[in-house]
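re: ur question from earlier - yeah i can do the single chain one, its not a big deal. heres the input i used so u can compare w yours
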Amino acid sequence: MLIVFRMARQAENTLYSLSTRFQRNVRDEDYEIICVENESDQNLDEARVHAIAPNIRYFRREESGKSPAAAINFAFEHARAPMICLIVDGARMVSPRVIRFALDGQRISPNALIAVPGYHLGPDEQHLNVGYGEQAEMEMLETVDWKRNGYALFKVSVFSGANPFGFLHPFLECNCLFCASESFRKIGQADERFDLPGGGMINLDIWRQLALLPESRMMVLPGEGSFHQYHGGVTTSDVVDREQVLETHRAQYLKIRGEPYAGVLREPLLLGAITAEALPFLEKTVQGAKRRFNRFRAQGRPDWPDDPQLSGSIPSDR
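and the output i got, formated as tokens:
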């Protein structure tokens, strides 16, 4: 389920990256791509969308909303598979075996909650990269021939702020996640009270609610990624009042949930393969994990205190 608003060029790249023209070891009939676009002054061209792949179902909502929450629920109403993928920000391209390994994860456990690590295109996080913009990014992408080798995106990216120390730290959010449709239904779907521009902390809230389900089996695809393209987003661009915007998001989350946001500390099962292009990020992850585990050992704390499967309080799938 891909949610789009005012990002036509970027969304076309994302749709291409989700298609079997780019994804490896899967067929069109293995999955469907549901693209829901909220009306804007930069709408996708429907004919171009359907030319990308035969398994795309495209919907344009005339009700233009600042938040993607309602569009997420609209997309879910039209989903037919027992597992869904949610990409709230349609400007996120994915690497070539995201679909294949997610399907593998579903076969391992029907309760799989699969996280695809997030990256920002460019030499730094985009809100910190003064002067970086859409034209610079387009020129940069031309240098790596990403449509021929999607793993080349790792060469021009950095970890996003959601997992700056790598995927053996708890995720604060996940911008490309897979879960059972029943799990998404169980958490009440997307909470439409998150009505701020960009949805505020809706993406973080969905991740946390899913990760807190005791039956969820958390998995991470360490050799895959979702790569954020520049599009002047609410929290990912160089804006003067960014900290004020984030504070507004935190205040709304506190009002809705009654407590400040916190990540969920559950042990991930690493699934998939590591390409040469992704290897530097595995190295950074291991370095960060060593520091975290050593610190927790010194403090006498467990590594993953929120994981009921480590305590044996719930049975495994087998």
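The chain has a mean pLDDT of 93. not sure if urs matches, ping me
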